[in-house]
Specification:
With 330 residues, this protein is of the alpha/beta class. It folds into 2 domains: 3-200, inorganic pyrophosphatase (n-terminal core) (Alpha-Beta Complex), CATH 3.90.1640; 206-329, Roll (Diaminopimelate Epimerase, Chain A, domain 1). 39% of the residues lie in helices and 17% in strands. It is built from 12 helices and 12 strands. The strands form 2 sheets. It has a 6-stranded parallel β-sheet with strand order 3-2-1-4-5-6, with helices on one face. The protein has a 6-stranded mixed β-sheet with strand order 7-8-9-10-12-11. Helix 2 links the parallel strand 1 and strand 2 (51-55). Helix 2 runs antiparallel to helix 5 (153-166) and helix 4 packs antiparallel against helix 5. The longest helix is centred in the C-terminal third of the chain and has 19 residues, at 311-329. It is globular, with a radius of gyration of 19 Å. Residues 240-327 form the DHHA1 domain. It holds the Pfam family DHH. Residues 22-163 form the DDH domain. GO terms for molecular function: nucleic acid binding.
Amino acid sequence: MSMAMNDSFDHIGEVLRNAETIAIAGHVRPDGDAIGSIVALGHSLMLAGKKVRILSEDKVPLNLAFLPEVGLVEQPPESIENLDVAVALDTAVKDRLGDNVNRVFAGAKVLVNMDHHGTNPRYGHLNYIEMTSPATGQIIFDFLKSQGLPMDAVVRDHLYTAISTDTGSFQFSSTTAHTHRIIAEMMEAGSQFWELCQKLYNTFPLRRLLLQKALLNEMKLSAGNRIASWAMSHELQSEIGTQPGDTEGLIDMLRGIDGVISPVIFEEMADGRVRVSVRSKDERLDVSKVCLVFGGGGHRMASGARMAGPLAVAEQRFLEALEDEIKRIG
């Protein structure tokens, strides 16, 4: 997507500087990039003297609840009086903000849309979409720096969380030299991220280990062992008592299998729909194309969709489409 199509950081910065009341939100079922981005931008603007509300349709997942100032994130009120600017971060399509967030955002004079998903249709009044960025958090760092906005330890911790989680701890091919320079710059400013990493990547509730056990017992290989998949039933989730955030990163266990180029996890939701998370380890395999067939989208190497159930039917339909795409690349 051409940078020329984007509104400039200076234009977006001017709109935010002229605003008195700002609301910021990310996508439903927020992950590290969504929470990290909305809190980093929101807290920075608060330090700059703005009245900011940081919203999320769903609660902060428990695996991120330790982050500093995460209590600033609130579920949407009925409305926000005199809302000047609404900012959507890391949200590929407007519906993914959630019904309640969209109700609040409808009252804003200006909607700003900042994201790194290539499938984003540019639904804001002002848009900054950079699909080559590995994380929305990286865009927020560049924006804050370009506008001279405050970056204290809280902002830096959230930016690190956003960037590190969406790059697979800097393992994914989307990670750039600029990504590493950002981390170095934040460390030079005083941050040491080892303790944060311990909590992000090496501290788990027992529930998480029980999910890993089920994954290892139930995973399937198909397409000549090039697809590794696991279907997580609602019954299993209820039995274990899973909480939001417990499944984060589980797909990397499948991703690590030698010979597998596409890991997939199917998660049966309470409403009967099926959440699909899929990755690609081969640059030739664009998994977002497969997800688009089922109303989803995302990145070439990491994408998702929500499908109608039942679980077994959704699993079969998606795997057949994914296998067809794999056959096309040879």
